[in-house]
Design a protein that fits this description.
The complex is a heterodimer of chains A (358) and B (164). Chain A has 358 residues and is mostly beta strands. Chain A has a single domain (105-357), classed as Maltoporin, Chain A, CATH 2.40.170.20. Chain A has helices spanning 5-15, 22-25, 81-85; strands spanning 33-44, 48-60, 65-78, 91-106, 109-120, 123-136, 141-156, 159-180, 183-196, 204-206, 212-214, 220-234, 238-249, 254-265, 270-281, 307-319, 323-336, 344-357. In chain A, the strands form 2 sheets. A 16-stranded antiparallel beta barrel of chain A has the order 1-2-3-4-5-6-7-8-9-12-13-14-15-16-17-18. In chain A, strands 10-11 form a two-stranded antiparallel ribbon. In chain A, β4 and β5 form a beta hairpin. Chain B has 164 residues and is mainly alpha-helical. Chain B has one domain. Chain B contains 6 helices and no strands. In chain B, α2 packs across α3 (83-94) and α2 (32-46) runs antiparallel to α6 (138-147). Chain B is globular. Chain B starts with a helix and ends in a 17-residue tail after the last helix. The chains are: A mainly beta (358), B mainly alpha (164). Chain A binds chain B through residues 85-87, 156-162, 204, 206-207, 209-214, 218, 220-222, 224, 246, 248-252, 254, 284-286, 293-297, and chain B through 5-6, 9, 12-13, 16-18, 20-27, 55, 57-61, 88, 91-92, 94-96, 105, 108, 113, 116-119, 121.
């Protein structure tokens, strides 16, 4: 069963899987590299636990390029209301992701290309990513462009005859501008188009008339997101990072996300970061808590309904000459406004990482 | 401010909205007498067990004599099905009927995966065999005929040919 996307993406972001840009790499010597290892745990009071393990390595090549590869394993255990209501008591599974990325400086431009593959018992995906980045105006302005293509093969546990496909194209355009010595602002637009099977083969909808049906989602979905960000240094030892994201899609979902993070150096090698995040989303046009009559599209996915979440946490980092350590703890409260089977849930996300560089 | 955001979003989304998001889609009108005489006996004999679909927990929840009842007391479980129970079974069953017969989960779920069906937990309960081992099963054929549009007279007699 595919994980809640927010868990996966949250884990990836928390664990630092991001392409390294060549511009940073040019300053390194051939053979320089680093290995990261981290462990993250997500647990909520809806009986879901995800343990994420990651090993990531990078190496500066003899040419102006850096190669990066990672292995990520999610071990999931869940007895959420979704699966209990589908008459499955509890399920456990592993998701394994392998990825590689190369970033290089080509003709004054940073170029990156990567490949990701992910597999679990009922889902396999392959992703190809490419990116371009160019600095302009004495490096005060940076323009970036990215594209990703993902092919998902969706199955159903124990079922050799259920096979669906979901194809996703994603593009991202980013612009960042240094306003002064202490202030960086950026704007990013993302566009994603997906075609294929968007529903869950495990969820069913029952109408007020007693008619039950497999979940029926549209075959296409177009998503737009705009993220505005300001990063500003405060004094010599602190900075504040403010972000706002507006998201809208062709299913009628409109969402707002706000994040504020404050980071302060505590001595020469210790940093502490405090972060708060809030999210609000309106329901998809075809989502109903109760369907009075059968509709062309029907969903039992609470994440297509109206909900908000709020959370915050702290991260402590220690950086030595070759060794770096970090520890993070976040708490998140989710409130589902039109999903009768679950009003809300509380989640704790914690992770610890170690990095060795040479 | 909210209006400005919505206007900007609407302009951005122009051309990317999925069509028909709020359309109603009535379930197929299938013959009720054929259901009562040809399908209900199969569902009662092959599907409506307490561990299976005679349970309010299942999306396909079925009422049957001696099993789960809707408006009949526990002391009268053997009473004939009420009209309300038959209507409920008819309603829930046609929700699993798709435009294309071979995609109808009322047929594909109970059909053994080796015969092209979808995985069904009954396969575990019945020791690796599912409800219908093949499309030649009389019970499967009864349901398939109903989905294909078969009708029955109002005074029909419920079949006893429900399969093994």
């Amino acid at each position: 069963m595919r994980l809640q996307l927010i868990v996966v993406l949250g884990a990836l972001a928390a664990l630092g899987v991001a392409p390294a840009w060549a511009q940073e790499i040019e300053e390194r010597e051939t053979g320089d590299g680093a290995v990261d290892a981290s462990l993250g745990i997500y647990a909520d009071d809806d009986e879901t636990t995800v343990i994420t393990s990651l090993v990531d390595g990078e190496l500066k090549l003899p040419v102006p390029a850096v190669m990066d590869a990672h292995v990520l394993v999610d071990a999931v255990s869940s007895a959420s209301v979704d699966v209990v209501s589908a008459a499955t008591p509890v399920w456990t599974e592993n998701r394994i992701e392998l990825g590689a990325n190369i970033a290089a400086r080509v003709a004054d431009m940073d170029v990156s290309a990567g490949y990701l593959t992910s597999g679990e018992n009922d889902w396999r995906s392959h992703t190809v990513l490419v990116g371009l980045r160019r600095e302009m105006f004495q490096k005060n302005t940076t323009l970036s462009l990215g594209y990703a293509f993902t092919d998902n093969q969706i199955g159903r546990a124990y079922d050799p005859n259920f096979q669906r496909e979901l194809v996703v194209h994603g593009a991202e355009l980013g612009l960042s501008q240094l306003l002064d010595k202490k202030t960086l602002v950026s704007a990013t637009y993302t566009l994603q188009r997906s075609d294929g099977y968007h529903a869950s083969p495990y969820r069913f909808v029952t109408t007020a008339t007693g008619l039950a049906s497999p979940e029926l989602h549209p075959d296409d979905r177009t998503r737009h997101g705009v993220t505005l960000r300001m990063l500003r240094a405060i004094g010599d030892a602190a900075s504040i990072d403010v972000q706002y994201r507006l998201y809208a899609d062709g299913w009628g979902i409109l969402s707002h996300t706000g994040t504020v993070a404050w980071t302060r150096e505590l001595g020469e090698s210790v940093d502490v970061r405090l972060r708060a995040r809030g999210y609000y989303q309106g329901a998809a046009d075809f989502y109903r808590e109760t369907y009075e009559m059968p509709m062309r599209f029907m969903s039992a996915d609470r994440e297509l309904g109206t909900f908000w979440d709020a959370g915050g946490g702290a991260k402590l980092s220690w950086t030595g000459e070759r060794l770096a350590l970090d520890l993070k703890l976040d708490g998140i409260y989710y409130r589902f406004l039109d999903f009768a089977r679950l009003e809300g849930r509380v989640a704790l996300v914690t992770s610890g990482g170690i990095r060795w560089s040479w | 401010m909210e209006l400005v955001i919505r206007t900007l979003v609407a302009a951005t989304l122009l051309g990317s909205c999925t069509a028909g998001l709020q359309e109603t889609a009535p379930a197929p009108e299938l013959d009720r007498d054929c259901f009562r005489c040809n399908v209900q006996p199969v569902l009662a004999a092959r599907c409506a067990f307490g561990e299976c679909h005679a349970s309010a927990q299942r999306p396909l929840r079925l009422y049957a004599v001696g099993r789960m009842r809707l408006d009949v007391g526990w002391d009268r479980l053997g009473a004939p099905l009420s009209q309300a129970e038959l209507d409920a079974n008819y309603e829930v069953s046609r929700g699993f009927v798709a435009d294309v017969q071979t995609d109808s989960m009322l047929l594909t779920k109970p059909l053994d995966t080796r015969a092209g069906g979808l995985y069904h937990r009954a396969q575990d309960l019945f020791g690796d065999d599912d409800v219908f081992l093949s499309t030649a099963d009389p019970g499967y054929a009864r349901i398939a005929e109903w989905i294909a549009g078969a009708t029955a007279p109002a005074d029909c007699t419920p079949t006893e040919e429900v399969g093994p």
